[in-house]
Amino acid sequence: MTPRDRVADLAMIRAGIAAGTAILDTARAYAQVDAPLYGEELAAEAARGTGVIVGTKGGHSRTGANTWDADISAGRIRSDVETSLRVFAGERLELYYLHRVDLAEQPVEEGMSALAALRDEGKVARIGLSNVTVADLERATAIARVDAVQNLHSAMGRESAEVVAWCEAGEVPFFAYSPLRSSSNAPRLAAMAAARGVSRQRLQLRALLESSPVLSVISGATRPETVLDSLAAESEPWDEDLQTAYEEDLSIKA
Ligand SMILES: NC(=O)c1ccc[n+]([C@@H]2O[C@H](COP(=O)([O-])OP(=O)(O)OC[C@H]3O[C@@H](n4cnc5c(N)ncnc54)[C@H](OP(=O)(O)O)[C@@H]3O)[C@@H](O)[C@H]2O)c1
User: What is the pTM of this model?
Assistant: First the structure.
């Protein structure tokens, strides 16, 4: 998240929590170089006392306006966790991801071993892996239990289908990030949305949620209106017409 207006950003997150957001997703890498803890600080403040879980990430930070590093060495992960613990006032971190397993030069085993030790110490409650393949997950689970996976998986792209299948087999929660990427070319869903008087995006999020029992979506937003609309996807009615429209729009891309 880019620093904008702290009061407005906090109000937006709180509006989402009031409407039923269960998990907030943040990371060091989303903040600007001069305010690297902005997203974590906002999430910690908004979630405090609500029971909402914050998922945050380590091993990937912004180094310039458009540059980031990727380091899942044991020392870096421990240092990132310790920094996050200070932001969260020493409370245990409920969900902590290795952010860019795909870009780091270290093997996944190194970051996974570091997080497993931190979980054993009670500093991290759940271990997540982000931007991973099935092979990464197999190697990581040989070290310790993986509690959550977060990968790019959009409604119209279904980029991580194999990883979702792996999560289903092991009943591991899968979080689909950028769920609305490249979502505009969906004529059947757009027509159905107009007929139902809802947004096309709401139907796309609903369709993605329906696609797997272990899948949740991480929907990004800069406005309270889109936060609330995306949350409404969970209660949007599902029926065969919606399934058919979604499959027809998916086939356009195939
Ligand atoms: N693990 C990783 O490496 C990784 C990478 C990228 C993202 N993520 C996570 O995933 C989150 C979402 O990703 P993203 O922001 O790239 O993609 P996204 O959720 O697919 O798209 C966000 C955009 O969609 C719009 N939008 C959301 N809900 C909408 C709705 N109901 N109706 C109309 N427009 C809607 C938002 O509009 P407004 O701006 O107008 O609100 C925003 O411009 C990020 O915030 C981050 O937490 C993780």
Answer: 0.97
Nearest residue to 114 (alpha-carbon basis) of 129, 135, 134 = 129
| Ligand 1 pocket member 143 (CB < 6 A) | no
Asked if pLDDT for residue 11 goes beyond 60, the answer is yes
Going by alpha carbons, the residue nearest to atom 44 of ligand 1 is 220
Whether 51 maps to a domain, the answer reads yes
The tally of domains found in the chain comes to 1
**Which residue lies with its CA nearest to atom 8 of ligand 1?**
177
3-state helix, strand, coil in the chain (%, to 5): 45, 15, 40
Q: How far is the CA of 224 from the centre of ligand 1 (A)?
A: 13
Residue 246 β-bridge partners:
none
239 located within any domain: no
Domain CATH number, residue 50: 3.20.20.100
What average pLDDT does the chain have?
Answer: 96
Number of other CB atoms surrounding residue 163 within 10 Å = 23
